[in-house]
Amino acid sequence: MANSTLQPPSSSSSSSFTPPGGSISVSAQVGIAILTLAFILGFPGNLFVVWSVLCRVRKRSVTCILVLNLALADAFVLLSAPLFLRYLAGGRGWEFGSAACKLVHYLSSVNMYVSIYLICLMSMDRWLAVTKPFLSQRMRTKRSLLALLMGVWMLAFIFSLPMPFYRSNLKKPNGTLKFCIPYHWKSVGHEAFQYLFETIMGCLVPFTLINTCYSSVICRLQSARFHRRSQGSCLILMIICTFAVFWLPYHIVNLIQVTGLLQGKASVIDAAKTARPNVTAFAYFSSAANPILYVFAGSSHIRQAGLSFMGKLFEGTYSESRTTSTRSGRMSSSSNTVLQSLSVKLGKPFKGKNKNMSSVVGQNEPELKTLASVEPLD
């Protein structure tokens, strides 16, 4: 299907509406309200998070460093809000040139990928701390964390390359104003590729990884009868849920539009294009949501610490991550010690291998049940 220059533009993290000449449409008014609120709350809020981490946190956990990068990415993308506000309210189209059109949408796309893959790193860090504590302690070095962060940023810049490729500053038919809109050279294949690629790499792949990590963590904690949920874990879960709430509608619209393109159904495509401006604006607000979460999560520290309350919150993630790793390590060590003791009493050597443990349990199950009733297992 031809990609008309009149269609609403889409991006990975920015809201771009085409106001009709002389008046501001309802969609544009909604976009202006969302962008204004996002900028007023999000930009100073993310700068406050950066200041808190850099100036108020003495011991920074992995979660804290990842939150710092997340806040920097969100603050940076919110700098584009004044350009889009001018675009929506000015009634003069896109006045900043083709290069700026491509750049701001490219950086918005980078923000989406950086955010979700930083959340993936948070989930993987929590998974390692709970399921493989000794490996987690060895990997938690400045060098390995720096390498992972560089990898995430490079991946985001690479994944975002289609965005400027499919974005142009074009005139309306029989018009003089230019608008920063998507353009796919009237190719169904290019249009389907862009939206499907965004959804696969920006939603399906990372959320599969996140769900796998947290499912493993939940199973591990349940099997260990260790049900205490730390503040750090709650904070990460809130960040994940917030990202999902703001971005899932955007990716659902992507899938609807791809479905319409592949089936050649104009009504489905039109419905997706009608919904796209609003869900894109909604996704843009995700850059302002995290600082609000941190305020609620750290509210118990406000009365005691004042403006340093967020520093106290992030320092708590440091102590809790060490406690989780230590406690998980103690559980592993305790299990090995108990099995070694049982194997000595049974006359069977225990070397800490799963197959040896299985042979001891399998061959001497009655004796193990009897000894387990008198030996403490925790």
Automatic annotation (TrEMBL):
It is found in: Cell membrane. Keywords: Cell membrane, G-protein coupled receptor, Glycoprotein, Membrane, Phosphoprotein, Receptor, Transducer, Transmembrane, Transmembrane helix. InterPro entries: Formyl_rcpt-rel, GPCR_Rhodpsn, GPCR_Rhodpsn_7TM, Leukotriene_B4_rcpt. It is a multi-pass membrane protein. Gene3D superfamilies: Rhodopsin 7-helix transmembrane proteins. GO terms for cellular component: plasma membrane. The chain crosses the membrane at residues 30-54, 66-85, 105-124, 145-166, 192-214, 234-253. GO terms for molecular function: complement receptor activity; leukotriene receptor activity. One of its GO terms (biological process) is phospholipase C-activating G protein-coupled receptor signaling pathway. Pfam families: 7tm_1. Its main location: membrane. Residues 45-294 form the G-protein coupled receptors family 1 profile domain. Belongs to the chemokine-like receptor (CMKLR) family. Belongs to the G-protein coupled receptor 1 family. This is G-protein coupled receptors family 1 profile domain-containing protein. It comes from Takifugu bimaculatus. The lineage of its organism: Eukaryota, Metazoa, Chordata, Craniata, Vertebrata.
